[in-house]
Amino acid sequence: MTESSTPRPSFHGFEQIPLREYAERAYLDYSMYVVLDRALPFIGDGLKPVQRRIVYSMSELGLSAASKPKKSARTVGDVIGKFHPHGDSACYEAMVLMAQPFSYRYPLIDGQGNFGSADDPKSFAAMRYTESKLTPLAEVLLGELGQGTVDWVPNFDGTLEEPSWLPARLPHLLLNGTTGIAVGMATDVPPHNLGEVVSACIRLIDDPQASVADLCEHVRGPDYPTSAEIITPAADLRAMYETGTGSVRARATWERENGNLIVTALPYQVSPSKVIEQIAAQMRAKKLPWLEDIRDESDHANPVRIALIPRSNRVDAEQLMGHLFATTDLEKSYRVNLNVIGLDGKPQVKHLKLLLEEWLQFRYDTVTRRLKHRLEKVERRLHLLEGLLIAFLNLDEVIRIIRSEDEPKPALIARFDLSEAQAEYILETRLRQLARLEEMKIRGEQDDLDSERDRLIATLDSKAKLKKLIKDELLADAKKFGDARRSPLVAREAAQALDETELVASEPVTVVLSAKGWVRAAKGHDVEAAALSYREGDGLLAAVKGRSTQQVAFLDSQGRSYSTLAHSLPSARGNGEPLTGRFSPAAGAGFVALASGGNDDRFVLASSHGYGFVTRFENLTGRQKAGKAMLSLAEGARVLQPAAVGSVETDRLVAVTSAGHLLAFPVSELPELDKGKGNKLIEIPKAKRGTERVVAVAVVPPGGNLQVKSGARTMSLSFRDLEPYLGSRASRGGLLPRGWQKVDGLDVQ
What we know:
Helix content is 30%, strand content 22%. The protein is α+β, with helices and mostly antiparallel strands and 749 residues long. A hairpin with a 2-residue loop joins strand 32 and strand 33. Helix 7 packs across helix 12 (352-393) and helix 7 packs antiparallel against helix 17.
């Protein structure tokens, strides 16, 4: 058979389109389905389609809060068989989520059986084992369903009708929040406190011009099902509500108990077992030397109780917990993206005011539809009662017509000028309703319905009355279902992980520097540094008190500064180690002074030529191996031991020369510099500058005592005793008493 005679396939009755166009159309249809019918919630009732269908199906099964529960499989079967033709496991999982008090701030389903735990939310039993019914709060979503408040649409096979939305009396979207991932967009709405949201709604009803900042006075932040702290600053929360996007950071709460640290609440959706595993992994890797053990002491009475046992009571609990917050799920950040389907049927990221405005518009429309529906029923009933009363007043004639006429309905209409509905209602009336007392009942019902009709019309015609009705209903629901905030709002900085070198216990240490540059650290502050053993020909140069977690700065004879952590220094049980092994000073330079403290502590740096300045300890640190230039020295000047400053405003600086001149003046008269030569401390006459020098400087706080050392003797001068030596900076000062003019050093007690 030749090529030309080969039969070609017929496409009669089919549409031929390019594959590219078909794929584009199919993907667009799929993406719109995912956005509108699966992943994003509707602003009115705050529910996704599967959640709405579950709640509606349970109401149709009679599973109200007052009824007995039924097997969850029964509900799931109804949902997927009638309204939601998808997998039963996905439907059941959505149902379980609405029943978990640790997942939903205000659960909609009351589950009986194993519905999972906070430790493993997906550990729930199969649907054939569990039972469920609706919670009382579901009444807020369903209470007005049969009152003409919603549009009804055919289900997937056209055999039943289902509501397009539920007539929520509260902004459920904000109460329980939701998460979802669609095609090209996502939503992350956190849960909120019912009372706060209702308060914001009423504020917006009363003041439509209220700003997002005004509404944030009521909605202070999300309110998760756990009592973990929300540590996001108020300004960041306000910015989140103003833009509709942002993040919220939550932190576990803890307390001290008998020396242990007890974690009592975890952030939302954080598993205790996962946190314990994260901490245990750090302990196994020897990255948490502060911790000796970790125990899970959770029970029925204490759903979250994780005990952290420190190695000693000297461990800095705040630093330890700060490190754990930064490196485990004890502190967690949640993305916020208020992306929802609005009243126009389109997805949009909405700020708080727009979201509440649209929901209030939804509520206005719902209440208006409810009132109109009720008004129609009242007017229809009044119309029927009017016909019934005519029949009652002409009972004999009505009975005659019914008995004698072949077609009584048109005869009644013609005789009494009735409508078709009235005539039909008279013909369906039972004989017992024709008793004499019925006239009073009919007239009483008419009066009641007339009053109700007047109220309905008055409410529908008055925006003020409609607003008041909505406010009253919101307040009633808030009083019935509202509760206190669970997640406290506490302003804290985000935690920072500590360096491995900082993960040591904060203990008091005394750092000892020998004359030949050997260093060591002894535990405690009651160390007699001079009594320690030294290498032959060596001896004590200086010692400072600090903590094992702080840095120690060393100054060499050229005024350069070097730093290292105190806990890294060798123990004082031996002779220590030479600093030249850690640092690389210039040739001929030796280590002559040291200091230890926190970054913001202040010290006076001075030279023997009588110049100095105040500097923060942080300036002494940073460069380790080669050091950094700190104190500029003139030829022949040497570095003095730094003096710690307690308060720049109240402390006095004391400088003493080798000739016995002592000067005291306020520390505030000295400049604060990062480095340099500084200002003159004490006057040394030009004629004596080659022979007289500054021996030492010290800072004396109010109430402190200055120890003046001369050989083996020590003279104590109180803060008040220094008054004879007070003067302005760069003056000569006073001469010490005879016999004390050869000063070896100063100390402060």
